[in-house]
């Protein structure tokens, strides 16, 4: 499978800060071309909240990156600033190859990309989701009625983001007491539930 390129042309871009969200004139989000140079947050393997991972016959990896300015702000405050851009790319896996004898490694090109953007002047509730599964074309906002919004609101550790899955950021949020009540409730219920 060929690697998907997520680059936008200069004609499509409305001028904004170099790592913040960029939109076309009609409000579609332009996929950040350089997100792999941003701050890496974590990887997941077959995370069950991703429908593509659940449907795949082989394990799927997701890799999460955030724009550097927002990472620095979060590290200082435990909160995401306006214009935060979080990118989740999905890649396939392989178990046999070269000298590998056990486990899985990431293989092939990007099979999908989702972007979570904080732009309080543009989006009701401050945050919006975009999916670039169909390639590099600028993406329309995923409708607010979709499950990703309610799931993130009900379970995210900090400001509708799944900081609980980012091991370098969770301690920062704990230190700054910015963990959401919903996440603390989920955690308390998990700790109190019988072992499975």
From TrEMBL:
It comes from the Bacteria. Residues 32-162 form the Cytochrome P460 domain. InterPro entries: Cytochrome_P460 (IPR032033), Cytochrome_P460_sp (IPR038142). It holds the Pfam family Cytochrome_P460. This is Cytochrome P460 family protein. It comes from Dyella ginsengisoli.
């Amino acid at each position: 499978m060929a690697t998907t390129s997520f680059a936008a042309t200069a004609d499509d871009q409305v001028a904004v800060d170099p790592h913040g969200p960029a939109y076309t004139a009609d409000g579609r989000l332009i996929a950040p071309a350089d997100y792999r140079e941003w701050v890496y947050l974590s990887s997941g393997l077959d995370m069950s909240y991703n429908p593509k991972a659940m449907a795949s016959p082989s394990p799927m990896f997701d890799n999460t990156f955030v724009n550097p300015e927002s990472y620095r702000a979060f590290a200082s405050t435990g909160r995401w600033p306006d214009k935060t851009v979080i990118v989740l790319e999905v890649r396939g896996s392989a178990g046999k190859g070269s000298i590998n004898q056990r486990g899985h490694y990431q293989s092939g090109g990007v099979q999908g990309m989702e972007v979570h953007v904080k732009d309080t002047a543009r989006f009701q509730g401050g945050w919006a989701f975009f999916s670039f599964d169909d390639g590099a074309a600028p993406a329309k906002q995923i409708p607010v009625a979709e499950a990703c919004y309610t799931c993130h609101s009900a379970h995210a550790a900090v400001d509708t983001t799944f900081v609980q899955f980012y091991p370098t950021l969770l301690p920062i949020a704990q230190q700054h007491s910015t963990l959401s009540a919903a996440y603390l409730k989920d955690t308390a219920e998990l700790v109190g539930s019988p072992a499975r």
